[in-house]
Specification:
With about 240 residues, the protein is of the alpha/beta class. The chain has helices at about 15-30, 55-60, 70-75, 85-90, 95-110, 130-140, 155-165, 185-195, 215, and strands at about 5-10, 35-40, 40-45, 45-50, 50-55, 75-80, 115, 145-150, 170-175, 200-205. The strands form 3 sheets. The chain has a 6-stranded parallel sheet with strand order 2-7-1-8-9-10, with helices on both faces. A two-stranded parallel sheet has the order 3-6. A two-stranded antiparallel sheet has the order 4-5. Strand 8, helix 7 and strand 9 (about 170-175) form a beta-alpha-beta unit.
Length: about 240
């Protein structure tokens, strides 16, 4: 099995999943991997001559190499900036796993790794009948958790890590994102997160406006088991100490 793809989730909405995902794409490319992004479902899109487009999905497309077709990267682009289930209902769209699976297969065929960015927090559903965990299990993806570093992040991170495990999914690592530049006792909070999240930290991103993914990529530490020359199955690698 070649280098795995990943599912990126977060402790909440607005905590920097896209910032972390685009940085991860650049970091994987620095490792010699062809890496493309995917945003299976995005709400809050703008009308363009070629259809509805989402800013986060466009950022993933710009950070990808090779550059995928937008329709494959974001098969469900919903106009209203609402929870996906509500946005789909308002648009009269039915979210189907098979359509996402087909788009993912096309991306996987052209790249070594696909960075799949989820919606909101882990428990936010994609539809009335489809959860994010369903996608992760269907595509057999390890999960990366983006922790928005602010007051309350300990509770959110611990609960999310537990939920991922309870859903039968594998947490491969986490990335801290400094969304509150004035956070008190930031380093102490990071130490508590590292002690209790049952997966290694892949890096901590600083508060940056605007965020440059190529620069942030240098702050991420990609584990050695992710390599274009090593066919490791993430399920068989050693667990965290």
């Amino acid at each position: 099995m070649g280098p795995p793809s990943f599912y990126v989730t977060g402790t909440d909405t607005g905590i920097g999943k896209t910032v972390a995902s685009t940085a991860l794409l650049h970091a994987l490319r620095r490792r010699g991997l062809r890496a493309v992004g995917m945003k299976p479902l995005a709400s809050g899109c703008e009308s363009t001559p070629t259809g509805w487009h989402n800013d986060d999905a466009l950022a993933l497309q710009a950070a990808s190499d090779p550059r995928p077709e937008y329709a494959d990267l974001n098969p469900y682009a919903l106009p209203l900036p609402l929870a996906p289930e509500l946005a789909a209902r308002e648009a009269g769209v039915s979210i189907e796993l098979e359509a996402i699976r087909a788009a993912y297969a096309r991306l996987r065929a052209q790249a070594d790794a696909v960075v799949v960015e989820g919606v909101g927090g882990w428990a936010a559903p994609l539809s009335a009948t489809l959860d994010q965990a369903d996608l992760v299990r269907a595509f057999d993806l390890p999960v990366l958790l983006v922790v928005g570093l602010r007051l309350g992040c300990l509770n959110h991170a611990y609960l999310t890590a537990r939920a991922i495990a309870a859903d039968g999914c594998r947490l491969a690592g986490w990335i801290g994102n400094s969304i509150d530049p004035g956070m008190a006792r930031r380093e102490d909070n990071l130490a508590l997160l590292a002690a209790r999240i049952p997966a290694p930290c892949w890096g901590v991103l600083p508060h940056a406006e605007p965020a440059d993914p190529a620069t942030l990529a240098r702050l991420l530490t990609i584990p050695d088991w992710i390599s274009p020359t090593r066919a490791h199955d993430f399920r068989h690698r050693p667990g965290p100490a």
